[in-house]
Amino acid sequence: xxxxxxxxxxxxxxxxxxxxxxxxxxxxxxxxxxxxxxxxxxxxxxxxxxxxxxxxxxxxxxxxxxxxxxxxxxxxxxxxxxxxxxxxxxxxxxxxxxxxxxxxxxxxxxxxxxxxxxxxxxxxxxxxxxxxxxxxxxxxxxxxxxxxxxxxxxxxxxxxxxxxxxxxxxxxxxxxxxxxxxxxxxxxxxxxxxxxxxxxxxxxxxxxxxxxxxxxxxxxxxxxxxxxxxxxxxxxxxxxxxxxxxxxxxxxxxxxxxxxxxxxxxxxxxxxxxxxxxxxxxxxxxxxxxxxxxxxxxxxxxxxxxxxxxxxxxxxxxxxxxxxxxxxxxxxxxxxxxxxxxxxxxxxxxxxxxxxxxxxxxxxxxxxxxxxxxxxxxxxxxxxxxxxxxxxxxxxxxxxxxxxxxxxxxxxxxxxxxxxxxxxxxxxxxxxxxxxxxxxxxxxxxxxxxxxxxxxxxxxxxxxxxxxxxxxxxxxxxxxxxxxxxxxxxxxxxxxxxxxxxxxxxxxxxxxxxxxxxxxxxxxxxxxxxxxxxxxxxxx
Length: 540
Hints:
Elements: H1 3-26, E1 29-32, H2 52-56, E2 64-67, E3 77-80, E4 90-94, E5 101-102, E6 104-108, E7 111-116, E8 119-121, H3 155-162, H4 164-175, E9 178-183, E10 186-191, E11 194-196, E12 200-205, E13 208-214, E14 217-228, E15 236-237, E16 240-242, E17 245-257, E18 264-266, E19 269-273, E20 278-281, E21 288-290, E22 293-297, E23 310-315, E24 321-324, E25 327-331, E26 341-346, E27 352-355, E28 358-360, E29 367-370, E30 376-378, E31 381-383, E32 398-400, E33 409-411, E34 414-416, E35 421-425, E36 435-437, E37 440-442, E38 448-452, E39 459-460, H5 463-467, E40 476-477, E41 482-484, E42 489-492
Parallel strand pairs: 1-2, 2-4, 3-6, 4-7, 5-8, 6-9, 7-10, 8-11, 9-12, 10-13, 11-14, 12-14, 13-15, 13-16, 14-17, 16-18, 17-19, 17-20, 18-21, 19-22, 20-23, 21-24, 22-25, 23-26, 24-27, 25-28, 26-29, 27-30, 28-31, 29-32, 30-33, 31-34, 32-35, 33-36, 34-37, 35-38, 37-40
Antiparallel strand pairs: 38-39, 41-42
């Protein structure tokens, strides 16, 4: 190798190192302080800027803006248009453990941006005398509401009279404030923010792509997380909504609407919602809802234009929707107490994949299919469906409601003490289902295994009669022997008849805990059996 070549190589390496160093130096930390700063300062920790708007105009890829404790709400809705780069995102973060107060951030046409640690309290105020759920604020209890009455033919008037305080939140929706709005943006992270008193805590819209929403606390809002579209035909796609804590939401926790597609909603903890905890409406398909814990919902379902709430409501979801490994408990139906399902597949001709869920003490049915079909309802543990409900038809473990609810596969489910019975087809028939088998039944006295035309005909109280329908030839009848149902531990004891009684054809590869299923003889229900010593279930 000649000296000239060696020199050329060394110069090339040196140039790369210089460029890398220049990029590292370009990544700068700036500071904003509403109490002690000045926009005439240099933006350092010792000389922080005063306002968000001044600081945002000076950020470049790789920079971090640290926000000091203080009240930035007088700045109003703060617009953000920032373009970071892959590997060099722009960060807006609370300084250390401080929690600065901001009214709202509106992120548009941005990329590679992270926002964390802020408190975003909105402009809305709670009605006078409002009380948190589980209390229900009823202003005129003498008003009786028939959920079958048309909204515009008198029911709306009755709702406004009975729930005068709650109707206040409809004005929140009209004003439409959002704690964090992300529109027409990509590769954005929203993390560890506290959001309250907005119409929507976080709104993703206008084709937001690859947004991560994680570890936020959203409370006292009309909706916690929702979508919308104006400039794009899709509200948001390929986003991840995970590990958020959501409380005291007056309508719904997480809504996948506006053709939202290919998103993951996982490991969120949602409690005390007025309607449903997680819902899809006119979604674009391919969404995955998994590993969430949703409890205590449906307190204000009498205020719905189309009454009837479910813990997880899959409505017009689009193809390829998966609902797996969730816990749904204590879903109510405020007022009428006629509904309150655990999981519903509603107006989904493509069906949904509903597996490995634990559904416990919901007022309505455990899993419902309404104007849908082609659902896979498999390896769920459904315990005490119909709890505290009053409906004469809604309170079974699995319900098929309409003529369109056909070609369903219902296998490997534990059905334990539903108030009104096991698997019932109300306006369709068991004979129009693709497969029903390997389910475990432990029924209350006087309730039926299955039936068609619930409440009128075809109710099957005897196992032999049920099997003559051609379904559940391998059904198991008996106590599933949970480890401790009283503490909601629905894992299986070693003596459970559910162990090894499932069918491999429709069993998910792993159970609700992520444990591999037995490849030839899986256990029925959401959990594969594991010895007390731990470890995977395996094939031994």
